[in-house]
Amino acid sequence: FHFYFKRHYHISLPYTVILMLVGAVLGAFYQYELIKRFTFIADLTPVQILAIFLPILIFESAFSCDPHIFIKCLGQILILAILGFFISVVLTTLAVMYWYENEYTNDIQACWTWDQAVLYSAVVSATDPVSVVSLLKSMTSLKTLSTVIEGESVC
């Protein structure tokens, strides 16, 4: 689809937009029995999807990484992975607590404890730099930068 749009309409759409459009069209036809035969993967639980796709994604990322650059940049990767994630969780927790405190001051049921806010922030603030890494690989960028970002996503 990407090449069709680019060649015939001179429109360069990112593949994620095309995947979303194809998914929306297939989702609209999901009620028909013919389509349901080919969409059995939609019946998988989130745990099954995670168990199937996460090892593949981690393996591909680790396999395509240059080991010499990875070892050379390991300190930077660990700083980004650990300290960056910690700072992101703290800032997201503070934002969530501030928002709930100001938004729902009269409703006692809507108030979150700090534990709930930290757990929510740890889930929400996890980064997924897959699109950034694919963009860096398609451009003529520094190999070190793409290795650092990809290594941070693996950690």
TrEMBL record:
It comes from the Eukaryota. It is found in: Cell membrane. GO terms for molecular function: potassium:proton antiporter activity; sodium:proton antiporter activity. GO terms for biological process: regulation of intracellular pH; sodium ion import across plasma membrane. The keyword Zinc does not apply. It is a multi-pass membrane protein. Keywords: Cell membrane, Ion transport, Membrane, Sodium, Sodium transport, Transmembrane, Transmembrane helix, Transport. The keyword Transit peptide does not apply. Residues 11-155 form the Cation/H+ exchanger transmembrane domain. The chain crosses the membrane at residues 12-32, 44-65, 77-98, 118-136. Its main location: membrane. GO terms for cellular component: plasma membrane. Pfam families: Na_H_Exchanger (PF00999). PANTHER family: SODIUM/HYDROGEN EXCHANGER (PTHR10110), SODIUM_HYDROGEN EXCHANGER 7 (PTHR10110:SF86). This is Cation/H+ exchanger transmembrane domain-containing protein.
